[in-house]
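Quick one: structure tokens for this chain, please?
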Amino acid sequence: MRSMLRMGWLALLLAVGCAGRQDLETPDHEAIYDVPLEEMWPSVRQYFTEAHLPYREDRGSMVLETEWKQEFGGSKIAGYWHRYMVMGKRESPTKSKLWIIRITKSVNKTLSRPGKELDWSSAVGRTLDSDVGGGGGPSAEDDADRLAFPVGENAFYMESGQGTRDLTMEWRVFRGIMPKLAKKQPEKTGQPVAKATSTFTECGQSILGLKKQAKAGGVMLLGELHGTQEVPRFIAQSVCQLVTSGMPVTVGLELPVENEERITTFLQSQGGEVDWLKLMEAPFWRSPYPDGRGSEAVANMLEQLRQLRAQGLDVAVFVYDHPKLSGQQREDALTKTVLSQVKPQRFHLVVSGNVHSRTAKGLPWDKQYKPMGYLLKGQLDDVTALDMAYDSGTAWICAANKQGNKLDCGVKEAKGRDNGDRFFMHAWDSPNNEGYHGVFYVGHVSASEPAVLKGLGNPDAPPAPGSTSGL
């Protein structure tokens, strides 16, 4: 029986392929180890050590918790950090499993449960139960440390943190350590096995539905509402999760083509202060009507993509807007530029306002209008258009003022529908009237101000006066 199970493991490992890849699949079942917990646990320690995820361990209970690791190794502005609580569990006397809880924190309050923030004021020395029983309880600092741990399988945490069980990570560890455990078995099959991964890139929680939509040569059009923090993060996470699984990705951004050289140079740079200044010198970032495309979140996303490239991952970026044109001439030019960047071996994420990405002909005010998505669909075999879905919040939007003679740009209310906190993609059975094939969901949205108001978009710059984005 053990030999048959081992052969099943080897087949699974061979199917995984390259050792450094991070699987995109979102499992719906647990990974079970056909070894006792005591035999499996040393390999768990070794996995996290080799993946450069430092941890502290409660050796008496086979529980460890990693230190915080930032997504993409990215910037300090609007950043997200993750840590893992790993718990060894006995399935039977001869079988075991891991539960891994991902805990996420952010510099903003998006993930915070109302009413759970600690008071760090001058009264911090007073214990939380000092009014009952004479102050024998834990201090606020002790309570903060205690509440860094999850309560239940899906739980929310203090300040801006939240935690969920991460089956994807559980299977990633399983695939990483099973080759070594299999080698310890006495039988010899002569079959090659994959090496355990020695590096780990934090890409955030897996985006549901992403793997089904991502195909080599495919073009995915994302029709967005400009000016949110969440869409740039969704793009960066999608790219990170795809390229670490071995799929080359090209990102198309609706920024002026005049910025192509600056952005390419920045992505190939070390990301130092001079590199940032050269990137932000472009007039685009200082538009008198900043419509959200030059936001702090977009600048931060470019830094995150640069970080992925610096790790040797296959990320390419191009820009394709022609702002000097308008109407159908502009759509034609957008299409031509995007077509010039499509390669059969790569997956393409092309982000735009949600008029350009429609794959159906016509608009309410012009039935003959041919959006970029419609034109691309006529010339490419694999084009998918997803409209943005989101929970209500705010966005940095430019809209006509009451007189209608100029644009009023600023933080505006954005009304959506709550479909939870998890990022996902969902395709319908058939396109809707606008030519969208489904939606990409980014949860609650929060406005992102122009990058020039936040230290030129430099992640190492101090926050602007009055900013709430700093740590």
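The first strand starts at residue 32 and ends at 33.
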